[in-house]
Design goal:
homodimer; Rossmann fold; 2 domains; six-stranded parallel β-sheet; four-stranded parallel β-sheet; 12 helices; 45% helix
């Protein structure tokens, strides 16, 4: 048994979709979450800047005594994972491998779509991971730069004409390829699940990267005997680089529960 | 005559619309531009974070021997201007007062619209400045959080169905009030001039905040005898907090000219 908390971070709020799944799957675990809301979004920035920010995010989390770190961010997982693993001894999990495993397990036709931020698609990380498992896979990828701004603006509901138009535009070429599985390669995207699913049709399986990362961290901890007592009530602490009040106010949209009074601001540029 | 450069900054690329006008109006002036592309956009962040970032932006510019600083950013001008003026002895110009002057001069009916980022509209700064000049003005304001992401994604052209739909949604209530003048309260928005003008109709006068700030700085320098020799060719240097290559690649969209080899990266968080 390992009673230390798990660290989780994201460029902003999106990683909370992974935390929500971790709370469900690992109710006894303590979680320390950092959201870089003062510098979100990462997905349009250069690889160099993403790596610099990710290093600071990890350095902040390392100020706690953690048993593992989950990168609950598609952009960081695809762009900075290797550097972070090389520079840190603590086990680090990203969203890419768990999502690739799930996609390969679910596809019947081998036709798999991947959507993500510009940096994520530029990295080619999801493709490499999927092709390593299923060399015959036929992949279609699409960068979707406006989806994070739409989610951050709370425009996630069915019937929002702008969101539906943007989703249709990005997904039309993916749908045209006849994929049977679509990797939502950014942890913001599960909030758009309804709109995406309506457009792609119910026959297309959507891979929620946050959910798969949560499942993979549960499996890893179980395997290493690193779980906490599942009967206890895990504690969660949240840190953000912009206003704690703003973070708390929006977090319920992602988490499905209220976290007022449990958020603190952190000066991430000092790490 | 004052041969020192003028400093200009923005959260990202938008301020280049002001630089473009400054080059036209003040061809002999040297300009040092800083775009905080590593932390753009500012408009959705808390006032506290905007002030913190703006202080660093000014501190970086103050590392040069400048004769004036132009805040070519609606969000900073509306949210941090007072703090920056209080803390710095150098003359600092924002976009609010010049835009308010222009709007009041142009309106015939007194019905004026103001659009900007969330932080800009929340601040109420344009309204205060306009009402101080024209207490009978009837103002309609509207926060347009998706316009900066659309411009940063290069989706500025007529016929872009998403951009046209978003502009229509934001401007419908402004148009319904029958405004005859619309303040484009963010220096990114002049790139959307065609789409905005098509929707509002040619009878509505659009106030370009970057252009007005450029005009105001020309007037201020002339008044103080602070102009450089207008016959010389001014030099411009550009700094960005994300990749210099990415900045140079996009800058021509805003500036109308190529600036490769004249951009350097700066570690803004160290200021």
């Amino acid at each position: 048994m390992d009673t230390r908390p798990i660290g989780v971070f994201d460029s902003g709020m999106g990683g909370l979709t992974a935390v929500r799944q971790m709370i469900r799957l690992l109710p006894g675990e303590d979680i320390v979450y950092f959201g870089d809301t003062g510098r979100v979004p990462y997905g349009g920035r250069s690889a160099e800047t993403i790596v610099r920010y990710a290093r600071q995010d990890v350095a902040f989390l390392q100020s706690f005594d953690l048993k593992a770190i989950v990168i609950a961010c598609g952009t960081v997982s695809t762009t900075a994972m290797d550097v972070l693993k090389r520079e840190n001894a603590i086990p680090i999990l990203g969203v890419v491998q768990p999502a690739a495993n799930a996609a390969v397990k679910r596809t019947k036709t081998g036709k798999i779509g991947v959507i993500g931020t510009k940096a994520t698609i530029r990295s080619g990380a999801y493709e490499s991971a999927i092709l390593a498992l299923l060399p015959a896979a036929k992949l279609t990828t699409k960068a979707c730069p406006l989806l994070v701004p739409l989610v951050e603006d709370g425009r996630v509901r069915r019937g929002d004409p702008v969101t539906e138009r943007v989703v249709e535009e990005y997904l039309a070429p993916v749908k045209a390829q006849g994929v049977d599985t679509l990797v939502l390669g950014c942890t913001h995207y599960p909030l758009l699940r309804d709109v995406i699913s309506d457009y792609m049709g119910s026959a297309v399986s959507l891979v929620d990267t946050g959910e798969e990362a949560a499942r993979a961290s549960a499996a890893l901890l179980a395997e290493q005997g690193g779980l906490n007592d599942p009967a206890r009530a895990g504690e969660r602490r949240y840190y953000a680089s912009d206003s704690a009040e703003d973070f708390a106010a929006t977090a319920s949209l992602y988490l499905g529960s209220d976290i007022s009074n449990r958020v603190e601001r952190v000066a991430i540029e000092t790490y």
